[in-house]
Amino acid sequence: MALRARVAGREGRLGESAIIGLNRAGARRGFARPHTCFDALRPRGNDCLRSFNPIMPKLTDKCLAAIKQIPVVEVASHYTSLKPAGRQFKALSPLKNEKTPSFVVSPDKNRWHCFSTNKDGDVIDLVMECEHLSFSEAAEALAHRHNISLEYLGTGDTSTRSLRTELFGIHDAATAFFRSHFKATAAVQEYFTNNRGFLAETAETFAIGFSPTHDNGELAQLLLAKFSPQAVRECGLFYAPRGLIQNAAQLVPRFSGRLIIPIHDGQGRVCAFSARQIPGIEDATQAGKQAKYMNSPETEIFKKGQILFNLHRARVALREFPDNERFVLSEGPLDVMRLWEAGFKLAIAPQGTAITVEQLQQVNRYPNGLRCLMDGDDAGKNAAMRLIPLALETETDTVFTVMPVSHDPDSVLK
After folding, report:
1. pTM, full prediction
2. I want to staple 157 with a disulfide (CB 3.0 to 4.6 A). Which of 152, 169, 280, 336 is the partner?
């Protein structure tokens, strides 16, 4: 399902819904169909994984051993349909399109081998290959899915492990809290479905929430009852005083009176929030009154330059599309949700800032390339121009589509 746009009639210049392609020399030209610039240059497989490696504390040998004992048959069955073949299982390869099964799983050895790609390994290797994750990300994803406690190496590993675990737990609890208030507040639901024109199903898919204007410390009390004061202070959901937190009244909600959009990491865990003003609903915090959008500050689990909104859903949706279908990069979460409703399941967005080298390297884990869908105003065109040298630096197969003047994907598709 390719995006369609009119080709600019004057040398493919940025503007007037032009589609711009990059070649290695940085030249620009207008064209009507997706093209491949760097297929021969972009690294594949684990080479891509090594190109982006977010800093994470290392897991202990004991923890890794427990993860590697997860039955490979159980993990592989999520990616392909296994059929018994003696003491082994065979299936079509989840790593390559094929008609004859070449993927073999050996329960006795708890390993797999793909004859069509000549790759093999354990459960961590399988998740790395199928989901295009780094080693640490794949190990953490497996531990999370199979309820294995994560243990980390290094000085202070206990506090690091505890803080990361608590922060993820806090964000899960906050998501449920915001979601319940969205469902209980008719005015906010009306804003989302009637004013903004989104479907109710989209609110469910993206777990849209609402931070009440005056919650009387309800969220703070909920979190302090389950998590340490340090984790609650550092989660980014509150304006907190320095020093020891004595009670919930000291914590001022950061997103009061706003529509809440959860942000997930590559493994699908909520790690932050984006919050939008709602016309007619009071913003109880002075600090946020002038900003239409607010994002969580950076924390132990959220580095905005390393997170692409909706990537965790898009990479799963890749299985439904051919290899030449590109990720669609837009400017914000609401644009992504609008594209998602219109059938563009590969829509992603940076986190309130210009896209980074680290984010482009994540895109390069996949063979699909990137279509950059920019707003039609000067800011959108300038953002496209800033992206060009980064795309060349990272050898990211990139196509630029510039929307009509004064429009963005939300307004065009609404």
Report:
1. 0.72
2. 152
